[in-house]
Amino acid sequence: MEICGIGHDLYTYNIVINCLCRCSRFVIALSVVGKMMKFGFEPDVVTVSSLINGFCQGNRVFDAIDLVSKMEEMGCKLDVVIYNTIINGFCKTGLVNNALVLFERMESDGVRADAITYNSLVTGLCYSGRRSDAARLMRDMVMRDIVPNVITFTALIDAFVKAGNFLEAEKVYEEMIRRCIDPDVFTYNSMIHGLCMHDQVDEAKQLLDLMVTKGCFPDVVTYNTLINGFCKTKRVAEGTKLFREMSQRGLVGDTITYNTIIQGYFQASRPDTAQEIFSRMDSRPNIRTYSILLYGLCNNWRVEKALVLFENMQKREMELDITTYNIVIHGMCKIGNVEDAWELFCSLSFKGLEPDVVSYTTMISGFCRKRHWDKADFLYRKMQEHGLLPL
Question: Which residues of the chain have pLDDT under 50?
Fold first, then answer.
């Protein structure tokens, strides 16, 4: 535009500033603000909102506050959008008390809070474990004739579920239905998660069927939660049935899905089926997948197969963690191969890993089974020297 001799207006500058802020190019965005002011254009609410939103998305909430102070000095009044952006920024970075202080200031400045304001605060309080404060704020919201929506209710349901207080979660869910607010997939996922946590997998499956009849379609998270629930209760066949149903709905299982089913079959003492599912994985296995395989094979007395797999993992230079080594050490000790287990234990420091309490306990147990009392006693003392408490 400048090359063609076409001048900019405030609208043009605001578009450029907004794009730069969305790309986290704050230094350039601020230089554009300087340039527009040099040409006689004063920043408006749109300019300030773009900058504040950019800072908040980049977790630079205090930079946003500084900017607001400067803009206020220039006579720029804050509206509900700017307040909501900063309150949400504070809540997302865990600074809920700062958000509440700003909320009070908002009220004293005569700016009326809306559903977005309350949703940010309720969600922030829930994530901070302040469920009673969140519930109180929602009551305050209703008293002010601001209608709670699906986001408000879902935040509370999720918080109560994660705290293990499923009865309160059910009450909030019932209140939501009473108010004719349709739950979304996130609401159902939270409820299904809560039911599975309490081993009420049949009720969770009924909720899945209900959400489908209501026209709310489950996602991968829904199925992963239910599959995990069935596998944990040793009903792996029903978990596999859900996996097939998931595919029929056009959903592709991810690594978590496969990890859950593989682990389920190992726990059900069906290692061959677990390995077969691993060989048919559509998604990329991660270190958790391999740890499940190693542990499952060792636990089902297929230690030799586990050692072959472990050797292949080392050859492929996979980044192995202490959990992986602990599983292999445990497997070696299980079949009485304590000498090799000790050799692997001693090599940990050369691999940049420190033995943890599980490593020590496994080796001590292995030495005791072989009646190597001196070595067991030596390791026990060494564990204490490293400040590790016995399991």
Answer: 1, 3-6
> Nearest 5 degrees, angle CA 245-CA 250-CA 252?
85
- The span from the CA of 13 to the CA of 189, in Å, is 43
Q: CA-CA distance, 173 to 156, in Å (whole number)?
A: 9
Residue 304's identity, in one-letter code, is E
243-279 burial, b for 16+ CB within 10 Å, e for fewer? beebeeeebebeebbbbbbbbbbbbbebbebbbebbe
Query: What count of other Cβ atoms lies within 10 Å of the Cβ of residue 121?
Result: 29
Rounded-to-integer distance, Cα 162 and Cα 371, Å: 45
Residue 67 tokens, joined:
């900017």
- Cα 24 to Cα 60, 277, 329, distances in angstroms: 11, 43, 47
CA distance 316 to 309: 11
Q: CA torsion angle for 214, 218, 224, 230 (degrees, to 10)?
A: 30
Per-domain residue ranges of the chain: 1-75, 78-181, 286-391
Could you report the per-residue pLDDT of 274-287, keeping only the tens digit for each? 999 999 998 889 99
**Where does 286-391 sit in CATH, by number?**
1.25.40.10
Q: Which residues in 185-213 are b (16+ Cβ under 10 Å) and which e?
A: ebbbbbbbbbbbbeebbeebbebbeebee
Tokens at 11, concatenated:
């609208």
Alpha carbon distance 178, 175 (integer Å):
5
Question: What is the model's pTM?
Answer: 0.77
What's the rounded Cα separation, in Å, for the pair 122 and 88?
Answer: 10
Helix, strand, coil content of the chain in percent (nearest 5): 70, 0, 30
Question: What is the CATH code of the structural domain delimited by 78-181?
Answer: 1.25.40.10
DSSP conformation class of 356: -
